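Obj.: predict assembly geometry.
Materials: sequence records (below).
Method: joint structure prediction, all chains together.
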Amino acid sequence: MRDVAVIGIGMTKWGELWEKSLRTIFVETALLAIDDAGVDRLDSMVVGCMSSGLFIGQEHLTSLLSDYLGKNPVPAARVESACSSGGLALRQGFIEVASGMSDIVLVGGVEKMTDVTGCEATYALGTAADQEYEGYHGLTFPALYAMMAVAHMHKYGTTREQLAMVAVKNHENGSKNPLAQFPFKISVEAVLQSVLVADPLHILDCSPITDGAAAVILCPADMAKKMKKPVVRITGSGHATDTIALSSRKDMAWLESTHLAGQKALAMAGQKIGDIDLFEVHDCFTIAEIMITEALGLVEQGRGGKAVEEGLTALKGKFPVNPSGGLKAKGHPVGATGVAQAVEVIKQLRGEAGERQVKGAKRGLTQNMGGTGGSSLVHVFEAD
Amino acid sequence: MRDVAVIGIGMTKWGELWEKSLRTIFVETALLAIDDAGVDRLDSMVVGCMSSGLFIGQEHLTSLLSDYLGKNPVPAARVESACSSGGLALRQGFIEVASGMSDIVLVGGVEKMTDVTGCEATYALGTAADQEYEGYHGLTFPALYAMMAVAHMHKYGTTREQLAMVAVKNHENGSKNPLAQFPFKISVEAVLQSVLVADPLHILDCSPITDGAAAVILCPADMAKKMKKPVVRITGSGHATDTIALSSRKDMAWLESTHLAGQKALAMAGQKIGDIDLFEVHDCFTIAEIMITEALGLVEQGRGGKAVEEGLTALKGKFPVNPSGGLKAKGHPVGATGVAQAVEVIKQLRGEAGERQVKGAKRGLTQNMGGTGGSSLVHVFEAD
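Observations (raw structure tokens):
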């Protein structure tokens, strides 16, 4: 397998982009990445999108997107793994370049979520759960994560305030990210006083509904060097699944797929978790980030709540988690999130992250998750 | 890149399977392929499905399917390219094995289309067209292919009877395929007297709505040899896109994406079209098969109608096209079709195709298409 580098990144401002359609959002973003890479051709495209079918009534997505990007007849593949569709796109693009099948591959992620009503969006997102055994019985994602939160609080003594501290930290970071949907700070009190969605989760524990896209350009590391681009390699890729239904898990307070994907990615990279300088992880709900820090091995099982309280995962902590603002503040256009995590890591490893720069960062890790952890994708990046 | 072989195939009877859910159909089929391959593990899964979101309200599909197959935590990716989702799954699985990332990969395709009404199915299938510029203005797929048929008839003199002969030929072949949805013969008169759907296409020019799945197991060719399995290699893979909207094409009577994907696949295989012994192609409508035989270079542009009339593409003709019965008689569960084409080719190259066996077949080709040709996937197979 060939070494793979990221040579271009693109992301536009996320939010409720009512004036733009999915194709417009994607093309604007992809052009930024192509321009950043300075390439004059693409050999292939891989795009992650969870549900353009339910959100905008459009399948056959990559025929559409390659067309509107002006890149026909380029081979173009769409991949879907619910909210980890972007991470899956990154993995498929990585494999394609590593294999020798293609040299220059655009990996994109996109979702247009605000063209439907809130109820329709909740239904569409709910299709990431087991429809026959969860969805049709009334379970929504806030409800599922609320059960995970209760399990974690019961088992480890995680507090309601610790959950809020995840949101506060990520908004603190997000306030330094001009592309974030909600680039402002919030307080623990604000979280606790916000509307209750599914006990114990309040609305400020939840990532928002977002329109947005992200894109990166991959190529063989040798080619990147010749192009005299700053070389950031993808050194590890891990992918694992778990039962789709939360009720089938041995432990509702543990993310086994993230644990396994993390181990695989680190083993491939030849690194230990302590070697990594920053982490972009899937904080779709505050409890998720706490459980992810445990599953990746940043802290011991059950210590995730304490870790955020002690500042371990703050921007200037030992393990900076979600310097971008995470899903909570940056936004969560579901299919785009996994690719946007890579965009942030590349910015950090190039030293281009401005006010939220993690000083001297050389290695970063992304963790992207589908459903309640029914699938997880972890990637490790390293600057030359 | 490593040489890749297919060592297992699985397919169950297709049709309106009201008594089975998508997960059941997929698992039954995947187990047949695993059993046929005789493998005791999977390293990865790739599954093509066009729109489980719109057809059964389920995304995050491969978390579900790996779960119900009992294969968690195996990495499992879903890919989508409308009706060419199965062909795309085959390509992604091929790349994954060729790269060295995984050794034993299950490639599946599945669609459950009969749990919705006919109108809902027409809408779901219509999402393979450009929704903003085609779908919302009332264009359905029979209407789009009807326009292609009219263009072809006008430009080349293709006759209404020649269109019917494609359906007659494929039902003749399908009558020899016990897994086909419609395993019976029809006549030209029956086609011409059947209900008119979109002039000039009658209902017997159209492939049906189908529930079904198909699966193959891939591994490195070296591993297949050691396992003493009959080795059929995938020697070529081609993928190309075209404008998603039919109105944007230079020529409505020509399938450029199929032409380019075919050239790429044959070049990779080091073969010419005349070297291939049989073809499984995407006859979603009768006119499609006629245009595909031209785009692949079996006959000159404009001669596809004449070719079927002269028996060139019959089971015992010079270029047997759709020995399985094709989409027309075998059925068209859209995400499964591209994988089922591979299943048929492997059966033929192993000499296991029974009454519809193409004698002495050594090389076969599959052509799978999305939308009106907005994307095409072509694969070449060769028996050792």
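Conclusions so far: Chain B touches chain A through 63 residues (CB under 8 Å).
To do: check interface contacts against the pulldown list.
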